[in-house]
Design brief:
Chain B: It catalyses: a quinone + NADH + 5 H(+)(in) = a quinol + NAD(+) + 4 H(+)(out). Chain B: Keywords: 4Fe-4S, Flavoprotein, FMN, Iron, Iron-sulfur, Metal-binding, NAD, Oxidoreductase, Quinone, Translocase. The complex is a heterodimer of chains A (174) and B (452). Helix content of chain A is 44%, strand content 10%. Chain A is of the alpha+beta class. Chain A has 2 domains: 15-76, NADH-quinone oxidoreductase subunit E (Arc Repressor Mutant, subunit A); 88-173, Glutaredoxin (3-Layer(aba) Sandwich), CATH 3.40.30.10. Chain A has a 4-stranded mixed β-sheet with strand order 2-1-3-4, with helices on one face. In chain A, a hairpin with a 4-residue loop joins β3 and β4 (151-153). The longest helix of chain A is centred in the C-terminal third of the chain and has 16 residues, at 158-173. The N and C termini of chain A lie far apart (38 Å). Chain B folds into 3 domains: 18-229, NADH-ubiquinone oxidoreductase 51kDa subunit (Rossmann fold); 232-334, Ubiquitin-like (UB roll) (Roll), CATH 3.10.20; 339-433, de novo design (two linked rop proteins) (Up-down Bundle), CATH 1.20.1440.230. In chain B, 43% of the residues lie in helices and 13% in strands. Chain B contains 19 helices and 13 strands. Chain B has helices at 18-23, 28-36, 39-49, 61-66, 91-98, 100-114, 128-143, 174-181, 210-222, 224-229, 261-266, 295-299, 311-315, 318-321, 339-353, 359-376, 384-395, 403-428, 445-451; strands at residues 77-82, 118-123, 159-164, 205-209, 231-232, 235-236, 238-245, 251-256, 259-260, 280-284, 293-294, 308-309, 329-334. In chain B, α2 packs across α9 (210-222). Classes of the chains: A alpha+beta (174), B alpha/beta (452). At the A-B interface, α2, α4 and α5 of A face β3, β7, β13 and α15 of B.
Chain lengths: 174, 452
């Protein structure tokens, strides 16, 4: 059961973000602005790290649709994070060919390296990780991606995962 | 050496930019179509080509286009289905990453043929890098006069947008994709009405896969008849096959339809054989939803003829000893792979991705996953296999969209062909999870012949 985290956070959309919203809405015919909902939720998540109930309410008001129309979309699609996550969310493909070439072992290694179970955030707030379904990179598995850019890392080994994690730690310090 | 209609220039440095793509002859089909052809003539060429939808269903593309309702005063839409999420399939990602203008070129020609003034490329949200690549390429094409108002002075206007999905395999189903594009949950619609009559915003709409739309470019450049000369029977043209699993050279290959599977799997031009000196145990030829085949059945048809990479040859023998072309997602399994584990992995995927709209799929996929999980973890019962077959039959054909069938077929086929391996799991309990299964009767016929 997906649950929207019940937190009281104040959400303000910056003028830059509102410009992005407005640009998306122009892609659809008049009166069909609800089509902008998925792209706008991506923008919200990229900005705030997750999609909070308060942000969803504000998106509903912006698009002139009911809040429930936003909730049902945000809870249906797996990309929208409904609770605060690490700055970097390592999403490991666990399906099909990635499974054949060792995705499970990579996930085990990530769990050990980060010291947190799937879905939890490291104490420094930098990382969380989860297994996700097929990422359509089946020839280059195991693979993982990291939002909000959704940068891809292919042909993973324990060593390449270690380097990735330490690079991200270094990046976060700078 | 197969022809390269789509991937000919894939390795040219800078081919992802407008200028280099144009230097290599890019956008010629737009010039030809908009300046010298009528929309009806374009549809006719696509019909002549025999092109079948490359997303998995294999429905004739030209026929699909000709079904589009054309009432006056009503908008019509072309939507490209780039929601590639079928395990084993990664050809569209490849094409969009390296040669995005090919897709945009095809979108312009197809939109003109269908009378669409606004078209969308619906890309799965996880492919954000590809979304950015496409948006950049669209901006370039627009700056050069190939999109927007009065394209090339033809009087034809077209706006093209990229729409990100939110992470849901079901949005690869065309009506679920349209729901998603309308900003809703990706719940498939009951058909009829088909999108050709009532699609996006209730308007006539065509939904085509990335590869299908890209194939329109060579069809218009060379003519439908030329395209139809490639391939075999009703499997015309070239096809992108994405090869993964335990092959030596995973990747995306363009083949002439009709290529023998043996050549695809073992020649150096393509997969190069099985990795690490192992032998082939099984193959999933067209993405996770198609029936899995043991090596010996994969290599030969029911009539003991060499199996070909064509829609008809792969399907020969029906679901008893054949499979499907599907999306061209090719997964090879070596002798060490556990079929029970793989079947559980696929079923977990379908359970996770079921939209929940139809009870047989929502409940059935979860039930199958639980049973397969206990089998895989050494807690199964001998009656589980019959139970799985029973549940799969109750899902198949009883849902609004084909996701139910897609979930049922891998389970039913795995038990049909590898029942002894499931039984071994029951008999040997937890030990079974670490077993190397060997080949037994799944033996790769090529290897057997070589060592006989």
């Amino acid at each position: 059961m997906l649950r929207v985290e019940d937190t009281q956070v104040s959400v303000e959309f910056s003028p830059e973000l509102l410009n992005k919203f407005a640009d998306v809405v122009t892609r659809y015919p008049a009166g069909k602005q609800k089509s902008a909902l998925l792209p706008i939720l991506h923008y919200v998540q990229a900005e705030f790290g997750w999609v909070s109930p308060q942000a969803m309410d504000k998106v509903a008001a912006y698009l002139d649709i009911l809040p429930i129309e936003v909730y049902e979309v945000a809870t249906f699609y797996t990309m929208y994070l409904l609770k605060p996550s690490g700055k970097y969310v390592l999403e490991v493909c666990r399906t099909g060919p990635c499974g054949v070439v060792g995705a499970d072992k990579i996930m085990d290694h990530i769990e050990q390296t980060l010291g947190v179970p799937e879905g939890e955030v490291t104490a420094d707030g930098l990382f969380s990780w989860r297994g996700v379904e097929c990422l359509a990179a089946c020839g280059y598995g195991p693979v993982l991606q990291i939002g909000p850019e959704y940068t891809f890392y292919e042909n993973l080994t324990n060593e390449s995962v270690d380097k990735l994690v330490s690079d991200l730690r270094a990046k976060a310090k700078n | 050496m197969g022809r390269k209609l789509l991937l000919e220039h894939i390795n040219v440095p800078g081919i992802n930019t407008f200028d280099v793509y144009r230097q290599k002859g890019g956008y010629a089909s737009v010039e030809k179509a908009l300046k010298t052809m009528t929309p009806e003539a374009i549809v006719e060429e696509v019909k002549k080509s025999g092109l079948r939808g490359r997303g998995g269903a294999g429905f004739p593309t030209g026929m699909k286009w000709s079904f589009l309702a054309k009432p006056e005063g009503v908008e019509r839409y072309l939507v490209c289905n780039a929601d590639e999420s079928e395990p084993g399939t990664f050809k569209d990602r490849y094409l969009m990453t390296y040669i995005p203008h090919l897709l945009i070129e095809g979108m312009i020609v197809a939109s003109f043929a269908l009378g669409a003034k606004t078209s969308y490329i619906y890309v799965r949200g996880e492919m954000m890098p590809q979304i950015r690549i496409l948006e950049r390429a669209i901006a370039e094409a627009k700056a050069k006069g190939f999109l927007g108002k009065n394209i090339l002075g033809s009087g034809y206007d077209l706006e093209l947008y990229v729409q990100p999905g939110g992470g849901a395999y079901i949005c690869g189903e065309e009506t679920a994709l349209l729901e998603s594009l309308e900003g809703k949950r990706g719940n498939p619609r009951i058909k009829p009405p088909f999108p050709a009559i009532a699609g996006l915003y209730g308007c006539p709409t065509v939904v085509n896969n990335v590869e299908s739309i890209a194939a329109v470019v060579p069809i218009i450049n060379d003519g439908g008849d030329e395209y139809a000369k490639i391939g075999i029977g009703r499997s015309t043209g070239t096809k992108l096959i994405s090869a993964g699993g335990n092959v030596k050279k995973p990747g995306v290959y363009e083949i002439d339809l009709g290529l023998p599977v043996e050549e695809f799997l073992y020649s150096d031009e393509y997969c190069g054989g099985i990795a690490n000196g192992k032998r082939l145990k099984a193959v999933v030829a067209g993405g996770s939803s198609v029936p899995i085949l043991p090596a010996n059945l994969f290599m030969k048809t029911i009539n003991n003829e060499p199996r070909l990479m064509s829609y008809e040859s792969l399907a020969d023998g029906g679901f008893v000893s054949g499979t499907m072309m599907g999306s061209g997602g090719f997964i090879a399994y070596d002798e060490d792979q556990c079929i029970v584990r793989n079947t559980w992995n696929f079923t977990r995927f379908y359970h996770h991705e079921s939209c929940g709209q139809c009870s047989p799929c929502r409940e059935g996929t979860g039930w199958m996953e639980k049973v397969l999980h206990r089998l895989e973890h050494g807690h199964g019962k001998m009656s589980d296999m019959d139970l799985l077959v029973d549940v799969s039959k109750k899902i198949e054909g009883n849902t609004i969209c084909p996701l139910g069938d897609a979930a049922a077929w891998p389970v039913a086929s795995a038990i049909r062909h590898f029942r002894d391996e499931f039984e071994w799991h029951v008999t040997n309990g937890a030990e079974a999870t670490t077993r190397n299964f060997g080949l037994a009767h799944y033996a790769d016929p090529l290897t057997v012949a070589a060592t006989a």
